[in-house]
Write a sequence for this structure.
């Protein structure tokens, strides 16, 4: 009985190695919070992250959401955009790190969901 | 028994295939002055890519300035977007170049770094290496 069947190919497919959802607690104003995601590959893998930047169920690739920077009223005492969180991500040979930086908004709080993918 | 002479796999799900990987090192150097300072690196590939990812490694920072210097990311970190510390003679912890702009034109990849200097002087940079890794994908 055939129990295992393995295919090899010369085509170097992008193979998904690790994917999951993580949660980051938004730090206080001016601070950074990081979550390490361990992998055991021993080399720098290809990776992607997707972040629910505003905690509204909309995920943004790379954690970058375009804010309305054309509103110059902030320079004359108006309000800054509701959210101004920056998400960074980088990999070493042992971990994928995802960080959130609370740049400008003292009222930002709670948690944000991050989907990540590490490829072989 | 019949020998298999042809064997074809089909799938309704498209896959990404890595066509090629390129790597190399460029140097960020020269001077910076008040306003926007740009460095563009031209990297020729052997074929025109469908889609690329670009990763870089250098003296990376998370952008936090504390105690007269910039925080650095762990040694050996690679990013798809980020900030690079380039030492200079201005005395403010170094010039920060922001990476994140990649343009493909035929078989050439352009990687652009930008730095915004808020003071008017001209300062010399200490040449700093940036390694890159370019992944050329196609849908297969």
């Amino acid at each position: 009985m055939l129990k295992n069947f393995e295919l090899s190919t010369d085509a170097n497919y992008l193979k998904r190695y690790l994917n999951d959802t993580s949660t980051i607690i938004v730090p206080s104003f001016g601070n950074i919070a990081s979550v390490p995601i361990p992998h055991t590959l021993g080399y720098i893998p290809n990776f992607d992250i997707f972040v629910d930047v505003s905690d509204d169920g909309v995920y943004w690739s790379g954690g970058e959401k375009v804010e309305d920077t054309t509103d110059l009223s902030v320079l004359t005492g108006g309000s800054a955009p509701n959210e101004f969180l920056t998400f960074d991500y980088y990999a070493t040979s042992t971990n994928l790190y995802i960080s959130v930086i609370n740049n400008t908004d003292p009222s930002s709080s709670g948690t944000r969901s991050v989907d990540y993918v590490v490829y072989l | 028994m019949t020998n298999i002479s042809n064997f074809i796999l089909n799938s309704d799900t498209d896959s990404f295939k890595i066509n090629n990987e390129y790597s190399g090192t460029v140097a960020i150097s020269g001077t910076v002055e008040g306003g926007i300072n740009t460095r563009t690196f031209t990297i020729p590939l052997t074929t025109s890519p469908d889609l690329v990812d670009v990763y870089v490694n250098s003296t990376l920072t998370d952008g936090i300035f504390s105690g007269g210097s910039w925080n650095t990311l762990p040694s050996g970190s690679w990013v798809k977007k980020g900030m690079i510390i380039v030492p200079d003679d201005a005395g403010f912890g170094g010039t920060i170049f922001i990476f994140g702009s990649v343009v493909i034109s035929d078989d050439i990849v352009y990687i652009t770094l930008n730095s915004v200097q808020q003071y008017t002087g001209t300062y010399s940079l200490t040449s700093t290496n940036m390694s890159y890794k370019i992944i050329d994908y196609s849908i297969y």
In short: The first strand of chain B starts at residue 16 and ends at 28. Chain B touches chain A through 27 residues (CB under 8 Å).
